[in-house]
Amino acid sequence: MNRKIYSFATVLLLTVLVGCYPGGAEYVDEYDITYTNYDKTYDFVGKATYSLPNKIMKITGDAISVSPQPPEYIKDIYGVPILAQIDANMQSLGWTKVDVNSNPDVQLLPAAWESTTIIYGGYWGGYYCWYYPYYCGGGWYYPYVPVTTYSTGTLVMTLVDPNAESTDSNKRVAWTGAINGLLSGSYDAGRVNKGINQAFTQSPYLKTN
Amino acid sequence: MKKIFSVILAVGIFAAAPAIAQSAFSIQYSMGFGSGDVKSFVSSSSFRGAALEYRYHIEPKFSVGADIGWNTFYERRAYDTYTSGTMSLSGVQYRYINAMPIYAAFDYYMKPDEKINPFIGLGVGTLYTRRNTDMNLYTVENTVWAFALRPEAGVLVNANPGMDIVLVGKYNYGFAAGGLEAQSYFTFNVGFVFKGH
C-alpha cells in the first residue's frame, strides 16, 4: 500500500515540476519596448525649432563612415505616418518645425532596422552625411555610452544639435528614443504609434517654451 | 534549473527508497509566500514547488537529516516605465525567482508515540536563488548562493505503521550575498513521510 502511495506521489511530483513551469509573453506586442536617453546637460528649454527629413532611413548593413551606395529608405506608406506621429509629438511639446535650411535648433533624425543588430554609441553617425551633406562633419558623438542590442524591428529617433560640436567636430546628440518589437506578419501602425508616443511621454524634459 | 532539479529529485528518490531503515523519507508539495525582497520583486505567491527530506532518528524525539527544495515565483508586471539616471525603458516585464534551499536538518518531535506528532526544527545550509527580469527578448539574471537558515514547525499525522502525512510551515532565510539583499520566503508543505521499520 505504502509503496503504491510512494510511487504515486513521486510521479505526481515529477509531473508537477516538469509540467507547470511559469510562462512568459503570449502576444507579440508584449515584447514591445521603448527606450530613451538624453544628455542631462543639454538645454532643451532654450530651443524652439526642429527639422525632420521627409523619409526614414533604413539601416541595412555594417557601413559606418562613408557608404559608397546611397542609403535605402523605408516605404512611404509606412514612413509618412511615422513622421507625422513624430511631428505631432514634437509640436505638442512646444517645438516648431522648420526647414532644415532655416537653421533649426535641433535636427530629429529617424532610422529603422529590420534585423538583429548591436548598436554601439554613434554606430549610425556615419549616415549623417546622407541626410545633410552640407552639415557633414564626421557624424556625431554621444555624451554617454549607449550600448544596446536591438533585434527584429527597431525605430530610432535621434535629436542632434547641428550647432553644438565636440572637439572632434562631431554633432552633439541631445536625445535618443528607440522603439523595438518583434516583427509580426503584418505591419501594425498602432504598435508603432504607441511606441513613438511613449518615447515622448517618458521624456518630459523635451518640452520647450 | 528545472532539469537540474528533476535530476536531483530522481537520483534522491531512487537512492533513498531502499535505505529507509530506521529513517524516514518525505516527498512534499510546497507552496511559497515571499517576504521582504522576494515579495518586493515578485508579489505573487508560488504554487510551483516541491521538497524532499531525509530524516534519521537518533532517538524517537530527535532526528537529523537533509532537505532540498525548489520554489518558483513568477509575476507578469503590466506595461510600465523604469528609469535609471537619464535612461528610461518601458515595456511589459516578466519576473522569475527560482529558489533552491539545501539544508542540514535538526528536528525535535513532541509526541512520537501518538497519532498526531507536532515537531519543530531548524535547517542550516544554503539557498540558491536565480532571479530573472525579462523584457523584450532579453533577460537580466542574478544567481546567488547564500548562507541560509530555516526554522520550521509542523505535525506528523500517522496514517499507518509505515507512513505519516506531514503538514509543515517553513521560513527560508538566505542572507544577503552576491549583490542581492536577504532572500526570504515562507513555505507551506504537505506530503507523505515513508518510515523505515
What would you note in describing this structure?
The complex is a heterodimer of chains A (209) and B (197). With 209 residues, chain A is of the alpha/beta class. Chain A is 25% helix and 26% strand. Chain A has one domain (24-206): Double Stranded RNA Binding Domain (2-Layer Sandwich). Chain A has helices spanning 2-19, 76-92, 128-131, 189-201; strands at 33-38, 49-51, 57-58, 72-73, 96-97, 106-113, 117-119, 140-141, 148-150, 153-165, 171-181. In chain A, strands 1, 2, 3, 4, 5, 6, 8, 10 and 11 form a nine-stranded mixed beta sheet that branches. In chain A, strands 7-9 form a two-stranded antiparallel ribbon. In chain A, helix 2 packs parallel to helix 4 (189-201). The longest helix of chain A has 18 residues, at 2-19. In chain A, 34% of the residues are buried. By secondary structure, chain B is mainly β. The longest helix of chain B is centred in the first third of the chain and has 15 residues, at 2-16. Chain B is elongated. Chain B has one domain: Porin, CATH 2.40.160. Chain B has helices at 2-16, 36-41; strands at 23-35, 48-59, 62-84, 87-109, 116-135, 138-160, 163-174, 183-195. In chain B, a hairpin with a 2-residue loop joins strand 5 (116-135) and strand 6. Classes of the chains: A alpha/beta (209), B mainly beta (197). Chain A binds chain B through residues 1-2, 5-6, 9-10, 13-14, 16-18, 20-25, 30-40, 144, 149, 151-152, 180-182, 198, 202-203, and chain B through 2, 5-6, 9-10, 13, 17, 27, 29, 48, 50, 70, 72, 74, 81, 83, 86-92, 94, 96, 134-138, 160, 162-163, 191-192, 194.
